[in-house]
Amino acid sequence: MTNGEDCATIRASFRCDAPVAESILLKSRKARHRRRAVLYSSSADEKDALVLLQGSAHEMAYGRSGQSLKIDQFSKGDLFGDFIDGNQDTATEVIGQTETRTAALSPASLNGFMECHPCVAHAVLHHTFRQYSKLKSLVVDGLLLSGTGRICAEILRLCDASEDGVIRPSPVVSRLALQLNLSRGTASRTLSNLEKKGIIEWTAEGLKVVSRHRLEEMII
Asked: How many Å apart are CA 117 and CA 111, to the nearest integer?
């Protein structure tokens, strides 16, 4: 990965021009991580904001009794970690799903860029709002929907994110179950039932939603 590609990623993440992106890169600490490495931990002494330059990762939250819940998914260009100075009560970790590369900024450095460059402040607000919306949907779906309803809602969301109704690549059952805090058996049975009813179809390209309105009816 060249510095030019990293600069392009920073520009897209912070919606800034090249000189600002280069300044952010110069201020950041870049690192390469193996698959399944912990990229961020709320319990760490150093609290940084990180941009994912390469790879994918997910954020896990942990309860006092050892329960775990996937609360977010990150891809290239996403911002995560601590955006401002402050304490966080919830124990969380961001874990790489693949080999990853990150650029880390201290909260003070990030705040400095936000004060000097409105585009950076707007971008951080965008990242914050995206994470808030994701967490809100997770909480609402968890409280109001059945396990089947949560899976159907997620399949519909992935379908809407595609251009032709085909989800590429096909969802991995174990990851889908982890993301929705369900057992793998529940996720597998639900997808199997949807296929038997002709609502979804597994193809060589991915997972195709055949009947959108019937899928919507199952979100209860």
From this structure: 10
